[in-house]
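User: quick one, sequence for these C-alpha cells?
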C-alpha cells in the first residue's frame, strides 16, 4: 500500500449523522443557516423546473424518486397558487425573530393553534408569544 497524501477538501467534514435535532434548541449542524423552503415553495420550484424541462424536451431524467417527491408535495403542500405561496413567504419573512427553518415549518404545517404549533416546533417556545403566533397562523389560514 502506498501512503499517498491527498489535498485537503474545500469543505469541512460534516458532523456525525444523528447530531441534528429540531427540539427546544435547534441543532441543525451544517444546515443551521441554510435557506429553507416550505413544502409549497418546493412544489412550486420543482414543478416549474419540470415544466421547463418538458418544454425543452429534456425530461429524460425523471426518476421514480422525483415522481414520488412530486406526489408527496402534491399531497402535502397546503398552498397551491403561486400568488399564495409568495404571500406566505412574504408574511413569514417579516418574523425575523424566527429561524428560516422555523418559518418553513410554520408554513408547511399550517397549525390551527399556537399551542399545536409550539408542540410540533418546540424551539418556538421562547421566541414568539402565543398571541403573535396565533395572529400569524390566522393570517396564513386566510391564504389557504
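Assistant:
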Amino acid at each position: 500500500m502506498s501512503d499517498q497524501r491527498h489535498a485537503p477538501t474545500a469543505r469541512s467534514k460534516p458532523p456525525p449523522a444523528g447530531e441534528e435535532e429540531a427540539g427546544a434548541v435547534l441543532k441543525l449542524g451544517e444546515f443551521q443557516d441554510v435557506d429553507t423552503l416550505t413544502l409549497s415553495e418546493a412544489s412550486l420550484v420543482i414543478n416549474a423546473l419540470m415544466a421547463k424541462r418538458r418544454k425543452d424536451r429534456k425530461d429524460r431524467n425523471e426518476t421514480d424518486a422525483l415522481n414520488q417527491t412530486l406526489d408527496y408535495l402534491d399531497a402535502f403542500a397546503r398552498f397551491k397558487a403561486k400568488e399564495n405561496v409568495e404571500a406566505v413567504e412574504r408574511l413569514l419573512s417579516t418574523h425575523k425573530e424566527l429561524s428560516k427553518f422555523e418559518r418553513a415549518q410554520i408554513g408547511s404545517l399550517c397549525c390551527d393553534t399556537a399551542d399545536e404549533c409550539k408542540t410540533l416546533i418546540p424551539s418556538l417556545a421562547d421566541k414568539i408569544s402565543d398571541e403573535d403566533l396565533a395572529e400569524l397562523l390566522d393570517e396564513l389560514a386566510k391564504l389557504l
